[in-house]
Amino acid sequence: MKIPSVHPPKRPELRREAPKDTIPPVPRLVTSSRSDQLVRYGFDRHWWHDNYHSALTVSWWGFLLITAMAYLVLNLLFASLYLAQHGSIANVPDLDFADAFFFSVQTMATIGYGQLVPLTIYANILVTIEALIGMLFIALTTGLVFARFSRPTARILFSKVAVIGNYDGVRTLFVRAGNERQNQILRADVSMHFLRTEVSREGATMRRFYDMKLVRDRTPLFGLTFLMMHVIDESSPLFGMTAESCAMADGEIVVTISGLDETMSQTIHARTSYTAAEIRWDHRFVDIFGFTGDGRRAIDFGRFHDTEAL
What is the reported pTM? Predict the structure, then answer.
């Protein structure tokens, strides 16, 4: 029997321009979550394709629900098979569905209380098959749970907005990042790119990336905050742009950070993006460094996202 494939949504008649009342004009390409907002059409994906990736990226509630449903369905299936032969289980004169179901649970989990035992060849064959399936199911589930827990994650906080202001008399773009963990990120590398929509002379529409040079794109230790600075000079893709022209070009600033977490000794990654509506022009971030009453250095993360007009 041919297993049906899972098809993506039916392809509609796509519009070349976003609705005028949409803010921002197009969905951002990069988000802080693991999935984007783009709808994909025109390819076939079978149900077994990339299921390991799906098991790792689904939410914990979704993972637990799928696991519980699979466990329940397997036990219901074997309970029905045990009921197919009368007298297949000993010590139960009148076998009902509940007894068969809980016998299946004991068999799959290899509990073996000793009250219910297989009596016939048919029941013993089912017990053998279920024991094998139970071992595989528990092994796969255990591996997936461990993989989900051991997967490296970055607790990096990005400012909700990017700001453009002056620094030493030069027009500069600023993005603020902070380490939410009480440890260090070693050899942290930062990159920034500008994404915009362009139309060629032939009328073809294309989203293009432009590298944005940073004043400092690497730090040996990232333990507190990191202020990314991009000078808007003649070589900058933002040179000569205004808030209006950036919005018209569907401008988006993409920021990525990668480094080695000293606690887990694993490479971690974090990324975010800022659309034209999330760039504040002629602003600056407020200072979050200060001192406590007893003279100790302190950081006020409650004002991490705050800006002020120049």
Answer: 0.69
